[in-house]
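User: Hi! Is it possible to get a structure for several chains at once, not just one? Here's what I have:
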Amino acid sequence: MASPGKVYLIGAGPGAQDLITLRGARLLAQADVVLYDALVTPEMLQLCPQAEKVLAGKRSGQRSLAQQIINEMLVDYAHKAQLVVRLKGGDPMMFGRADEELRALEAAGIDVEIVPGITTALAAAAATRQPLTKRGIARSVAFFTSSTAPEHSDHDAIPETDTLVQYMGGREAIATAERLLAHGHAPDKPVVVIENVSRADQRIHRMTIADLTQGLGTPQGPVLVMIGEAMRPRPQQHVDTAISNTIAAQLRA
Amino acid sequence: MASPGKVYLIGAGPGAQDLITLRGARLLAQADVVLYDALVTPEMLQLCPQAEKVLAGKRSGQRSLAQQIINEMLVDYAHKAQLVVRLKGGDPMMFGRADEELRALEAAGIDVEIVPGITTALAAAAATRQPLTKRGIARSVAFFTSSTAPEHSDHDAIPETDTLVQYMGGREAIATAERLLAHGHAPDKPVVVIENVSRADQRIHRMTIADLTQGLGTPQGPVLVMIGEAMRPRPQQHVDTAISNTIAAQLRA
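Assistant: Yes, the chains can be modeled jointly so their relative placement is included. Here is the combined structure:
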């Protein structure tokens, strides 16, 4: 029996086709099989016309494959093909379930290499022109997500850093805002919410923590919530979206 | 007088030539001028053979330009050239002094666009195969740096997240380790130190917080310190560097 292939865990970045790395694009163009998650955009899959493309994705609120099934698919494909790509939105090593997939592949003796991707927070910082760190203002940044699992329901998920970035924060917005206020953050502290960053339907909303307590409705795409003094626009910054006080209505529109 | 050019603030990523984005590489190939910082590698500059290349860098312990001078250079070049790239190691929006440069360019009425880069922490997670988040183990990550400036000397710079990543942490290692212990982190909590990530001279050192109290000597390249349970190797993980208990000696060698 032939020796198994190699699996590359590749970060696709936020969605725009040209925000993947050169290394990621080269491997996609050589892949026999690409197992992609639900956050990977159709334009990204145009980089691997030769490959067998398989949706192996998890996404809240939609029908999705259990992680265990995805792990088994990865091992199975590695036994059938030489170059297997596991393509994930953002970066695989932050909020990407890489641990589970690495364990499964290592247990099966399959060689794995990881190619980093642009994580959503940095694409959002670029798109909104708001640096996450600022001299004298913000020297630390935390990336977090909230879990709605019962075992975490009393977990206080607000880190104590100068800038805060919540991944997948759309549905949790009210709870996040209330926890921020309970932690003593000022109601007028600036917040930037970005939906579908880097894509054609990207939307940027500027508000405050007080506004965030009104919630964000039911956004259609992935939502990132950035909080902190570093989110305050600069005096001569061109802010290319309307400053919105009726956020929920806008996001529902 | 001709209208000024456009400035692109581009993240070069950690150093390997193929870890820049497709967008970044395309703009480099079109640039008239590239102002690069001290962390940009020579192989990255091979992507812009046509451009005038100008070192405009700051690096601790070496002769470097003041930020004010760099800001003025950016504005000056934008008045002389159509496509100016400001190329920075890692990502420009995290620990990249983007705020100062954006303010200067905006004050001069110059159009700016930002292209994100792979930040060092995510390249390090990929190179060491240690995800920064793990289900049930690590749901939050902080990126921070310590300042040795007097006004920060009593600032407690250890965020309260599951995983901690200290940028430019080489010289601060002993102070960081002592602060971690004072915060109640266990002495045997795993630490991964990575020097020159993604480059030919990349070095990975696995240790504990107790080891870190011995310091890291005087590393030659940029050093990232990653701390937390997420840094513990998996049972069947192939750890491709020796586990070192004589770290300072190794880094000095």
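Chain B touches chain A through 65 residues (CB under 8 Å). Residues 13 and 90 of chain B are 4 Å apart (CA to CA).

User: Great, thank you!
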